[in-house]
Design goal:
The protein is built from 10 helices and 11 strands. About 0% of the residues have low confidence. The chain has 3 domains: about 180 residues, no CATH class; about 70 residues, Orthogonal Bundle (Helix Hairpins); about 140 residues, Heat Shock Protein 90 (2-Layer Sandwich), CATH 3.30.565.10. The chain has about 450 residues and is of the alpha+beta class. The protein is elongated.
C-alpha cells in the first residue's frame, strides 16, 4: 500500500523551521553559559585573591610592627589576622583573636590562605561574592522567561515573514492570472501591486526566446533523424535488392560449372573449376548472411535457451571443420548460463562466434569455451598477422593482411546484440577472446 505524502502549507513550514532553529540556538547559548560563565567567574576571583595574598606577604615580610598598610585591604573586605610565635594576635590590635592548638579559626567560607613569614603566622580570607552554583541557579531561574521571550520574538518574526511572503505570492499570482488572460501590459502595470513587473517581463521574454530556440533545435534534430532513417532505408533497400539480383547469376554460374565439368578436362582445369565453385559458394553464403541481418534485426520472440546445449549442438555440426585442422575444443562450465533471446538469432550468434574461432585458430591448437551464469567467453589463439587495431575487428570485410580479413561474423554478432540486454566485447592482445555478458541495469 502506497503511503500518502503529508503536504504542509508554506506558512506552517516557515513557523516550524523558525521555532526549531530558535530552540536550537537557545539551547546552545544556555549550555555555553552554564558550562563557562560560572567557572570563569570563580577563576577570576581566585586570581585576584592570589594577587592580594602575595602583596600582603610582601608587607608582612618587611617586618613593620604597625602593619598600617594592611588597613586598606581590610576596608576592601579582606580579613587579615597576624599571630606572633606565642600565638598572640598582633594584628588587628582592636580585635584580639587566638588560635587553638596551632590552627587558625576560619572566619569565612570564601577564599582563604595561610602562610608563615618572618616569624609571623598570617591568615587571609575573602568572602565569595558569587559562585558557579549561584550563576547556574540564576540562569535556570531566568531560562523560562528568556525562552518565552525568544519564542515570542521568533513567532513575531516568522509571522511577519509569512505575511510578507503570502502578500508577495498573492501579488504574483494575480499578475500571472492576468498574463494568462492576455491582458495588455499597460493594464497590468496600472494595478498597483508594488512589484517589479518590468523584471518579470524581461525574464518572461528571455524564457520565451530560449523555448523558441529549443523548439527550433528540436525540429532540426527531428529532420536529421528522419533524413538518417530515410538514408538507412534506402541503403537497406539498395543492398537487399543488389543481393537478390546477385543470386540469379550465381545460381546460373553454378549450373554452368556443373555442366562444364567433364572427365576430359585436364587436372589444372579441374582445380580451376573447383576453386571457382568454392568462390561461388562463399559468395552465395555471404549473400545469405547479408539478407539474414536485414530480415532478422526486428525479431523479438525471446525465449530461455540453454547455451551449453546450443554450443554442444554447434560443435557436433562443425566437427568436420575443427577435426580437419587438428583442433581441440575444451568447455569449462562453471555455472549454467541461460540466454533469453530469439532461438533462430541465438543460434546464428553462437554459430558465428564458434566458426570464427575455428577459422582463425592455427592447426593443432585449443579453443576454450568458458561458461558462467552471466557470461560466455570463447578464447582461441590467432595467427601472427602484424598489429591489429581493436576498433577494426568488428568492421565488415576489413583486410589486415594479404589473405586475412574480418568478413561479416563479428559484425553480425555486434549488430544483433546492439539493442539487446546483452553486451559484446572482444580482445586480441595475446589470444583472441570474445565475450557475451548480461548488461547491468
Amino acid at each position: 500500500m502506497k503511503k500518502k505524502r503529508i503536504k504542509w502549507k508554506t506558512t506552517r513550514i516557515i513557523c516550524f523551521f523558525t521555532l526549531t532553529m530558535s530552540f536550537v540556538t537557545f539551547v546552545s547559548v544556555i549550555g555555553f553559559f552554564l558550562l563557562n560563565i560560572g567557572p570563569r567567574i570563580e577563576m577570576k576571583q581566585q586570581a585576584v585573591f592570589d594577587t592580594v595574598v602575595r602583596e600582603i606577604f610582601d608587607i608582612v615580610n618587611d617586618d613593620e610592627l604597625s602593619f598600617q598598610r594592611l588597613d586598606s585591604y581590610r576596608i576592601d573586605g579582606y580579613t587579615i589576622i597576624i599571630f606572633d610565635a606565642q600565638q598572640n594576635t598582633i594584628y588587628p590590635i582592636q580585635q584580639p583573636i587566638t588560635a587553638k592548638n596551632g590552627e587558625l579559626i576560619h572566619l569565612t567560607n570564601g577564599y582563604q590562605s595561610t602562610f608563615d613569614t618572618n616569624g609571623y603566622k598570617v591568615y587571609v580570607s575573602y568572602p565569595v561574592q558569587i559562585s558557579a552554583v549561584d550563576v547556574k541557579e540564576i540562569i535556570w531561574l531566568a531560562t523560562p522567561f528568556v525562552l518565552l521571550l525568544v519564542s515570542l520574538l521568533s513567532l513575531a518574526g516568522s509571522g511577519l515573514y509569512t505575511y510578507l511572503y503570502r502578500n508577495e505570492k498573492s501579488k504574483l499570482a494575480s499578475v500571472f492570472h492576468m498574463m494568462e488572460k492576455n491582458i495588455p501590459y499597460e493594464e497590468i502595470h496600472a494595478v498597483n501591486t508594488m512589484i517589479k513587473l518590468h523584471d518579470y517581463l524581461v525574464i518572461e521574454t528571455q524564457v520565451t526566446a530560449l523555448y523558441q530556440q529549443l523548439q527550433c533545435a528540436q525540429r532540426a534534430t527531428l529532420e536529421q533523424v528522419q533524413q538518417i532513417k530515410q538514408l538507412e532505408l534506402e541503403k537497406k533497400t539498395l543492398l537487399e535488392g543488389f543481393t537478390h539480383e546477385m543470386k540469379t547469376p550465381i545460381m546460373a554460374s553454378q549450373l554452368l560449372l556443373a555442366n562444364v565439368r567433364d572427365d576430359s578436362l585436364s587436372e589444372e582445369q579441374q582445380e580451376s573449376l573447383l576453386a571457382t565453385e568454392n568462390e561461388l559458394k562463399k559468395l552465395q553464403q555471404l549473400i545469405k548472411e547479408i539478407l539474414f541481418v536485414f530480415h532478422n534485426q526486428q525479431a523479438h520472440d525471446d525465449q530461455p535457451l540453454s547455451v551449453r546445449e546450443m554450443i554442444d549442438h554447434l560443435i557436433e555440426e562443425y566437427e568436420v571443420l575443427w577435426s580437419d585442422k587438428g583442433l581441440r575444443i575444451e568447455i569449462d562450465q562453471q555455472q549454467e548460463l541461460t540466454f533469453f533471446y530469439n532461438p533462430k538469432l541465438a543460434k546464428k550468434i553462437f554459430s558465428n562466434l564458434l566458426s570464427n574461432a575455428i577459422f582463425h585458430s592455427p592447426p593443432n591448437s585449443v579453443v576454450t569455451i568458458i561458461l558462467t551464469n552471466k557470461q560466455l567467453t570463447i578464447k582461441n589463439p590467432i595467427k601472427k598477422t602484424g598489429p591489429l587495431k581493436h576498433s577494426d575487428l568488428a568492421k565488415p570485410f576489413f583486410s589486415y593482411g594479404e589473405e586475412a580479413g574480418t568478413g561479416l561474423g563479428l559484425y553480425i554478432v555486434k549488430t544483433m546484440l546492439k539493442h539487446s540486454h546483452y553486451g559484446f566485447t572482444f580482445d586480441c592482445q595475446k589470444d583472441f577472446t570474445v565475450s557475451i555478458y548480461l548488461k547491468q541495469d
